[in-house]
From TrEMBL:
Belongs to the short-chain dehydrogenases/reductases (SDR) family. The keyword Magnesium does not apply. This is SDR family NAD(P)-dependent oxidoreductase. Pfam families: adh_short. It comes from the Bacteria. SUPFAM superfamilies: NAD(P)-binding Rossmann-fold domains (SSF51735). Keywords: NADP, Oxidoreductase.
Length: 208
């Protein structure tokens, strides 16, 4: 087991990880880009630093590390890349949704570029998963129906099955596949209305 600590908001650290991925003396056959955090900063806020950090960690890092892994894997003729997006990327909830929509689109584009090389790309679109993510993001988890929660083990098992099958888009569980289908085909006005309700309902109240 090799541990390789890195701060993915630091470009020098990201470059170190990229170099490790391209080290042919120690090949990496599976890359999972899963670094991320919740964002609830208004798009109208004058301080864009939080948005910059989100783009840096969840967009640029995915681009750099996926590219490094893809180059090395393509040379060997095999490998798997998994980029974690979110069902939120199909909604309209500020910067986070925009970033996750980019991750999905980027991953699909990379899969097209790597066709026939033996390297597969899978983008994972999870829904709500019972981890510490929501607490750290200040999301009021009690506002989310129990039926929408997934256990981490359930998510990982479903995702790995899709990776083994070479699926480009992985949406674990039928309930979220149905939800994704509804979001794809619903009028954009309806998607925006749902996004607004979700955003307002999950904010953690602030005691004065």
């Amino acid at each position: 087991m090799e541990t390789f600590p890195a701060d993915l908001s630091n470009r020098d650290d990201v470059d170190r990880v990229a170099a490790r991925l391209e080290d042919e003396s120690r090949p990496v056959d599976l890359l999972v880009n899963n670094a991320g955090f919740g964002m609830h900063v208004p798009l109208t806020q004058s301080d864009v630093a939080p948005h910059d950090l989100g783009f840096e960690v969840m967009c640029r890092t995915v681009l750099v590390l996926s590219g490094a892994a893809a180059r090395a894997m393509r040379t060997r003729g095999h490998g798997r890349i998994v980029n974690v997006s979110s069902i939120a990327g199909m909604l309209a909830m500020g910067t986070y949704s925009s970033i996750k929509a980019w991750v999905t689109s980027y991953s699909e584009g990379l899969s097209v570029e790597l066709q026939g090389t033996g390297v597969t790309v899978t983008v994972l679109l999870p829904g709500w998963v019972r981890t510490e993510f929501h607490q750290r993001a200040g999301i009021r988890a009690s506002s989310i129906p129990n039926s929408l929660w997934l256990q981490p083990e359930q998510l990982v098992s479903a995702a790995l099955r899709d990776v083994d099958r070479g699926k480009v888009i992985s949406i674990p569980t039928i309930r979220y596949q149905v939800l994704a289908g509804l979001l794809r085909h619903a009028p954009k006005s309806a998607v925006r209305a749902v996004s607004g309700k979700i955003s307002s309902s999950r904010k953690t109240p602030v005691n004065s």
